[in-house]
Amino acid sequence: MQLGEDHHYDEYSYELGAIFMGAQSRADLHAKFKRLFNEMDIRIARP
Q1: End-to-end distance of the chain based on CA atoms, in angstroms?
Q2: How far from chain centre, in Å, is Cα 38?
Q3: pLDDT at 26
Q4: Beta strands in the chain (DSSP E)
Q5: Contact residues for 14 (Cβ-Cβ < 8 A; gap 6+)
Q6: In angstroms, rounded to a whole number, what is the distance separating the alpha carbons of residues 32 and 9?
Q7: pLDDT in tens, the chain (47 residues)
Q8: Distance between alpha carbon 47 and the CA centroid of its chain, in Å?
Q9: Cα–Cα distance between 26 and 1 in angstroms, integer?
Q10: What is this structure's pTM?
Q11: Cβ distance 8 to 15 under 8 Å?
Q12: Which end of the chain is more exposed for a tag (fewer CB within 10 A), N or C?
């Protein structure tokens, strides 16, 4: 879904959130972030 498809938001709206993650190493944290990013289907588009 894109922002313009929801009647509560226009195409220029955004919502921020915070996700706190921990890991044993930088590589592990990077892998966890990549997995989260992919599973949440987060897409950032440039105008």
Answers
A1: 17
A2: 8
A3: 96
A4: none
A5: 3
A6: 29
A7: 555 566 565 566 666 678 899 999 999 999 999 998 888 877 767 66
A8: 18
A9: 32
A10: 0.52
A11: no
A12: C
CA distance linking residue 24 with residue 30, whole number of Å: 11
Task: Give 27's contacts (C-beta < 8 A, 6+ positions apart).
Answer: none
The whole-angstrom separation of Cα 34 and Cα 27 is 11
Q: Which residue has the tokens 């950032």?
A: 44
Please tell me what DSSP assigns to residue 7: T
Rounded CA separation 34/36 (Å): 5
Do residues 40 and 33 touch, judged by C-beta distance below 8 A?
A: no
Closest CA to 19 of 40, 46, 44, 1: 40
Predicted pLDDT of residue 29: 95
